[in-house]
């Protein structure tokens, strides 16, 4: 019985070997799908991957609490001056002052009156000194002094400057008339005035200038004969001007010796200047 069983098994195995030999090829055929196995244990954590793209912005959060006051900043630049404000309300009246003392006005009036008399006498004395002793003439702006010392033109300029003035300049008809009368009353016929021919400049022009370097323009008192010559520009600075007692001007060589008139500006007055033009 046992031998028979072994024989049968051998036959089956032999048949399987023979059959598999007959159908063997180079292709491996998968077997049937097996049953699902059991779930294994959790593996180790993997490596950190690359950063993904940024997400969309989130919604604005709620406003936070107000912070503490910061440090005081630097002072800014000074602003423009503002407009004047409205007048304020009138303040209360002050307290009544103490009564004054009785004044002896009669005595003070007498002193003031005597001062007025003394001032009047002093003014007359000054006028006498100016007009009689010194022989000064004056306008609202200037004093004029006739110097009876024969000098050349340049010497006359220096002499007036040393006296604190300048050689007189008849820039207006009124001043010219005053100076001419001054010459006539002194019994003279002509004097130097501060007007001289100017040398040609770089441009080639020339003319007459006053002692203060201002050009001759506007008023002029040339005689009829000199009027024609005055239209021709002078060619040398040796030509000076003399004032005649008639009030007209004439040419004279600067080397001639003549009397002359100096002028002096008056002192500045309060509230304005007394050193205006002629």
From TrEMBL:
<dbReference type="InterPro" id="IPR016186">
    <property type="entry name" value="C-type_lectin-like/link_sf"/>
</dbReference>
<keyword id="KW-0430">Lectin</keyword>
<dbReference type="InterPro" id="IPR008160">
    <property type="entry name" value="Collagen"/>
</dbReference>
<dbReference type="Pfam" id="PF01391">
    <property type="entry name" value="Collagen"/>
</dbReference>
<feature type="domain" description="C-type lectin">
    <location>
        <begin position="139"/>
        <end position="263"/>
    </location>
</feature>
<dbReference type="GO" id="GO:0005581">
    <property type="term" value="C:collagen trimer"/>
</dbReference>
<keyword id="KW-0106">Calcium</keyword>
<feature type="compositionally biased region" description="Low complexity">
    <location>
        <begin position="48"/>
        <end position="63"/>
    </location>
</feature>
<dbReference type="Pfam" id="PF00059">
    <property type="entry name" value="Lectin_C"/>
</dbReference>
<dbReference type="GO" id="GO:0005615">
    <property type="term" value="C:extracellular space"/>
</dbReference>
<dbReference type="GO" id="GO:0030246">
    <property type="term" value="F:carbohydrate binding"/>
</dbReference>
<feature type="region of interest" description="Disordered">
    <location>
        <begin position="30"/>
        <end position="96"/>
    </location>
</feature>
<feature type="signal peptide">
    <location>
        <begin position="1"/>
        <end position="19"/>
    </location>
</feature>
<dbReference type="InterPro" id="IPR001304">
    <property type="entry name" value="C-type_lectin-like"/>
</dbReference>
<protein>
    <submittedName>
        <fullName>Collectin subfamily member 10</fullName>
    </submittedName>
</protein>
<keyword id="KW-0176">Collagen</keyword>
<keyword id="KW-0732">Signal</keyword>
<dbReference type="InterPro" id="IPR016187">
    <property type="entry name" value="CTDL_fold"/>
</dbReference>
<dbReference type="InterPro" id="IPR051077">
    <property type="entry name" value="Ca-dependent_lectin"/>
</dbReference>
């Amino acid at each position: 019985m046992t031998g028979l069983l072994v024989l049968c098994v051998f036959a089956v195995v032999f048949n399987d070997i023979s059959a598999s030999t007959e159908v063997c090829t180079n292709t491996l055929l998968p077997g049937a799908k097996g049953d699902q196995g059991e779930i294994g244990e959790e593996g180790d954590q993997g490596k950190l991957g690359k950063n993904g793209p940024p997400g969309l912005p989130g919604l604005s959060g709620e406003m936070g609490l107000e912070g503490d006051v910061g440090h005081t900043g630097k002072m800014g630049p000074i602003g423009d001056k503002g407009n004047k404000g409205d007048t304020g309300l009138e303040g209360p009246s002050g307290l009544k002052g103490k009564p004054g003392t009785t004044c002896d006005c009669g005595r003070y009036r007498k002193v003031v009156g005597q001062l007025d008399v003394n001032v009047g006498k002093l003014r007359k004395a000054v006028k006498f000194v100016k007009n009689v002793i010194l022989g000064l003439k004056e306008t609202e702006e200037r004093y004029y002094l006739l110097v009876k010392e024969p000098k050349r033109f340049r010497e006359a300029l220096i002499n007036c400057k040393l006296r604190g003035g300048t050689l007189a300049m008849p820039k207006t008809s009124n001043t010219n008339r005053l100076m001419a009368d001054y010459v006539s009353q002194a019994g003279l016929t002509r004097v130097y005035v501060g007007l001289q021919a100017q040398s040609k400049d770089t441009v080639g022009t020339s003319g007459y200038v006053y002692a203060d370097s201002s050009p001759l323009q506007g008023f002029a008192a040339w005689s009829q004969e000199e009027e024609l010559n005055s239209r021709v520009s002078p060619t040398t600075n040796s030509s000076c001007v003399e004032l005649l007692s008639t009030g007209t001007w004439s040419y004279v060589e600067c080397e001639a010796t003549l009397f002359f008139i100096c002028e002096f500006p008056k002192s500045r007055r309060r509230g304005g200047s007394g050193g205006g033009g002629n």
